[in-house]
Write a structure and sequence with these properties.
The protein is mostly helical. The chain has 4 helices and no strands.
Length: about 160
Amino acid sequence: MASLKESLINNLPLALTLITGVISYFIKRKYDMIDKKIEKKYDLFYSSRMDRFNDFFKNYSTCIESIKTISTTAVANGKIESEKLDRLIYYPLSNLHSSYLQLRVYLEEYEIPEFQKIVNRLDKINGAISRTYFNAEFNDRTSESSLFSKSINNYLKMRNQ
């Protein structure tokens, strides 16, 4: 019995070191796993945020380029078809709105107004183009109807003579 006591006393520092090392190893592994999980979440969030930024700016540049291709005289004279105007403005603007809503999830509160200004400005441009187009189309219709009524009146006058 004395030899067992002596051997435990002599090996106690080694046993405590070994037990402390094993416990420390498992604690370190646990914290490493927690850190990896946090890092993966951050990487996924950051990657998704960058994808949304890229989509927004791609759709923004598409809107700007499509607006640049519109002939203002053709719109003012109503000579552009509404389907073509929709393809040039409405669909890219709709895509921009969609990408803005997706991006908004990832934006900080102080960033939202700046992106909202961009979308609002393009909405105003779209509204101005639409008003110009529909005013021109309305003016064409009224001028056509007035030409039609004038030609009917002229026909009736000639017939009565």
